[in-house]
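re: ur msg from earlier - yeah i can do the zinc ion complex, just paste it... oh wait u already did. ok heres what im feeding in:
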Amino acid sequence: MKGIYLTSVVASALVAACTPRGTPTVPVPENPTQPLVLPPFKMDTSLTIDRVPPFQQGPLIVWGPPPDGITHPERVRTYDLQHQSTTVRFDWPRQAVVGTTTLTIAGLPSAAPRSTVVIDAGDMTFKSVTAGATPLKYDYDGHALTVHLATPLRADQKTSITIEYDGANRSKGAYFRPARHIVWTQGETEDNHYWVPTYDFPNDKTTWEFYIWTAKGERALSNGRLAGSRTVGDSIEWHWVLDKPASTYLMTAVTGNYTVLQDKPWRNVPIGYWTYPDSIDAGWRGFAKTPQAVDLFSRKTGVPYPWNKYDQIVIPQFQYGGMENVTATSQNDAEILHPAWSEPQANSAGLMAHELGHQWYGDLLTTRDWGDVWLNEGFATFMEQIFREEDLGVDEGAYDRLGAQEQTIDADRRTRRPIVWNKWVNDPIEVFFSGHIYPKGATILQMLRHQLGDDLFWRAMNRYTTANAYGNVVTADLRKAFEETTGKNYKAFFDQWVYGAGFPVFQVSSLYDRAARRLVISAKEVQPRDSLSGFFDVDVDVEARTDSGVVRFVVPVRNGTGEAGTNLKAPPRSIRWDKGNWILDITDFPRSTAMLQYQLVNDDDVLGRIEAVDVLAQRPADQNALNALVRSTRNDRFWAVRARAVDAIGIWGSDATRGTIAPMRSVANALVAATRDPDARVREEAATALGRLTLSGTAARDVMIRLRELARSDPSYIVRGAALASDIRLEKNAALPLAKQLMAVDLWQNVIRTPAVNALKAVGTPEALQLAQQYAPPTAQ
Ligand SMILES: [Zn+2]
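and the outut:
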């Protein structure tokens, strides 16, 4: 499963309107970006080592309190569900689920005979419960159907129970969406028993088949292979069969008027995209990279795609981004179907890769209970990162990892908990989206990947995947596979990072002895320690750049301290702690502005250049720091370095106390130049930053002219929206004629209206508020 995914302006637009608003009524260029032409790197030899600031004052992290909740241990199984066959139709007039299901159940090995079995069934009524032709007695409390068997079920014996049921007043499980006459179901975590009685906990695996009825002209998608379809009166019955075992929360049924786009198969595996008949091009665009990802994940894991086919289907008004129903993923239509101009901000490939990753981690190997759900979600997020790195290159892969680390650090500021965690208040879904499962889980796997190297890491992953295929897993199974593959003990690693909480906070210092030509790096851990977070024993990669070459060495940190040195022929120009940012940490490593300037220009690792931007941005009074940031807004080869530098100087320029001094003019000029960046994400950031500047006179006039131009003509409507919003903030009522004109256009995700409305509200004049009111989104239902 994945939460809502879209970034920045697109995400805020989603809140306003959850479904695409049709195609734009103005011509849209298909290929908006210009070729990237940036100057080559130049080494700045004028830099000298200057003053090194002290360590930061105050704590670098204050852990948030643990989340509320009580312990929910794994459910104890009392029988083995081996197969389930269900006939179901969705009754539109009553919005009811009407079905008949037969469960084939076996007694557990060496268990005592059982005279009752409990089947999960939510908000249902029952017409009959039978074994063959024999009616069975049953009790029902609204959640659990207790069936009294005619003869006790003994160990390893089988019985079949058939239930005729009707669910008209469901609180969840199946969702009717009248606008497109679509019904979809959502199981995870324990909701499938609201539309089909079953064993609704992940720690049992079963095969199943569905006979799903639709109106003529509609189709039904479910798990496994389409075994057949037949016309019965005004209806069609679609027969789907899953013949490999899976957990029941992965059952799905979707019905509606769909067009199925069949991509080229991967080996013999058919790959299909189910989209709306009016969204064929957007369907191809949104799902385009699926075969490439199937191939990549098969190669990386050494386990070929483990199911007989892979379908993805877009569904309307979905509460999540996507759901990895085995062989038949549901995807939020707003996240997959997007116009070409909305890229790269719109990123359906990430969602596609995440849900595809689940076909291995989640579906083939399934967490045994929700406390270990990082084995599903951390892994799927990791596979998403692996796909991005392979698809778009190591810089994008590294930036994805950094994003996950930043989310993890934020998570622990809000509320700190270990990855493995089985406490919640009302619903197991509460453990999913705190940041400790998706980004932290992926980050821990990336740390292992870096420690072991790709070859050994993927051998361990292959061992884990092969040993547990079609089964349930807990974290100990993962540790076992890594220990068996490497011959090393991973107890400390898992205790620190998975069963324990938090991460190390380092204070790092460097000393270069010019006489001895020796560099020494010292580190200590200063994070608050308690029963959940101790010291983190880690080996940290350090890199020093000098005029006579690059030197790398490792600082082993044990029991909270570490120190290591290396011979260096020339003084260090820059020093990286944790080269490559593989370790989840916060580091305070005071270095001179000159060293950070050097790092910003010369580090081959994009995360080193971003670190330099972030640290230089904290030195607002330092003219050299500002100049370095201004230069990197146009010189860096990676868009996110430019975007972060743009954001940093924008914040600098928004400080009214700086007045109209010369640097303000250079900031404004740099931001205007950045609105011509080849990457729309940088242009969006620049357009937004310009709206925060405190300018007057000709400088202000030049900025407004550029913003108006951008709002009218940028190839990306997302950039146009950001530019219009900034123009409104600066020009106030004078911007209203342009705003009226641009807001009249109906666009995907309201990418112009939403930021414009926010800006109009901020301006707050009666005229601005009146225009905002005209386009205010309807209040949420
Ligand atoms: Zn997921």
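cool cool. The pocket of zinc ion is lined by residues 1-2, 354, 358, 377, 380 (CB under 6 Å). ping me if u need the other ligands too
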